[in-house]
Amino acid sequence: MTTEQQLKLQAFLDGESPEGEARDVAALIARDPEAAKLHAELKNTRQALKGADAGMTLPESREFFWSKIKREIERTAPAEQPQPEPAVSFFTTLRRLFVPLSAVAALVIVCFIATKQFNSTADAAATTQGTVTELADAGAVTYHNYETGTTLVWLSYPADDSAQPKTTVQ
Amino acid sequence: MSSETNFSSADDQTLVKAAQAGDMLAFEELVARHRDKIYGRAFSMMRNEEEAIDLSQEAWVKAWQRLAQFHGESSFATWLTRITINLCLDQLRRQKRVRAESIEEMDEESGGVERQMPVVTVNPTERLERGELRQRIDTALGKLSDDHRTVLVMHEFEEMEYKEIAKAIGCSIGTVMSRLFYARRKMASLLADLKQQN
Hints:
The complex is a heterodimer.
Chain A: H1 3-13, H2 19-31, H3 33-49, H4 62-80, H5 90-129, E1 131-134, E2 140-145, E3 150-155, E4 166-169
Antiparallel strand pairs in A: 1-2, 2-3, 3-4
Helix pairs in contact in A: 1-2, 1-3, 2-3
Chain B: H1 4-9, H2 12-20, H3 24-46, H4 49-65, H5 76-97, H6 103-110, H7 113-116, H8 130-142, H9 146-157, H10 162-169, H11 173-197
Helix pairs in contact in B: 2-3, 3-4, 3-5, 3-9, 4-5, 8-11, 9-11, 10-11
């Protein structure tokens, strides 16, 4: 018998042969004693194995075996399911809010100080600049310093007593 | 269903539905009912008590995690047995990767050895007590290679078709037929030897 014939014989025994092939194998068994013997051996082995796995018992008590399964299920459950958000305390919420609020407050303070400094500098600049005014009298020019509150008057022509400017404090 | 007492009289379908709804007591009852069968299948595949216990436990945990995927196309026991078989196959593959296959096994794979074995003409298991027969079969199964035993167990005990076995193992139907043929012939020979020894 060829390997192919042997495997076909087995498929016939297992009911896995196509109809046409099953007829051929049945004929082979009928006419070939070797095929008939092999068929009988395979059939006996199959019969012997039938139900041979029944009756095996797990060598652990129900409670112990279940406790291991339960423990494993509980251990793996959090990894399988999405984790719920943990409860957040009031103080934690407050602490979380404090950081951005502090940053905003600091920024506001910095802006306030910067603006104030800019304004005072501008005022100072304005006051220190002072104003120069030419009087109707073409021979006299006054300079008023706002910061010091001082007014200087220049006379372009010599005065009777001196050529020094006269200063008037307002 | 609210108590364990009620669960003990409930059928598998009812228990599965309750377990799918998250009832662990129902699942515990399913474990109690089928744990021996699942262990038996794992043992027949692995031939190692400790591994069989671990793998059957793993199968139950997987079953719980995948309960939503069970829609009752087969019985719960069949579904669970398939999970167990797949876990055993994975374990055998891991073991195979770290261990070189023997020359004998490679010869078996080629399909040459079984043709030379003499046909066992007398039924070696005739008139044997059930317990004794089981013991002899158990011993003989232990002498088969993993590949041959796996196919034999899946076909004879699980009643899986050639194509189902091929799909589960990841090989051709021809390989399944060849392995099954060798496994049967080897079993016949081993059982005959055991009969002679007794």
